[in-house]
Amino acid sequence: MFKVYLSGEIHTQWRQEIELGAARLELPVVFSSAVTDHDSSDAAGDHLREQSEGFWRDHQSAKVNLIRTKTMIEEADLVVVRFGDKYKQWNAAFDAGYCAALGTPYVTLHDENIIHPLKEVDAQALAWANSTDQVVEILRYVTQEQ
Question: Could you give the domains of the chain?
Fold first, then answer.
């Protein structure tokens, strides 16, 4: 099975679109992702200790979330990094940089209106897609048998 990690914005259904497209084509792909429930992600470290300041709560939970993110990126054959235009996804940019440092192939997924701020991220990507259908087509191609 080809392992694909889906990174990035959590406010749209792009993950489900890719998963459904891959299932429809019966691609030999298994998907993983960060925790996409915002409140759960923000509370990932709350069980460790109560924090009186928001910064330290975020810091603590980010580290717990990073256990999952690092492990899944390191195990992935391909990472898809989605950038939306509504929020600044610093975590997605970090994931792309981590992929670049590891040599893990990644594809970016974003609209044309944010090409400029993502030029360095896209420069290291092996492809830039602007639709989930394009990502599914990449998956079809890279998993096809010769």
Answer: 2-36+77-143 (3.40.50.2300)
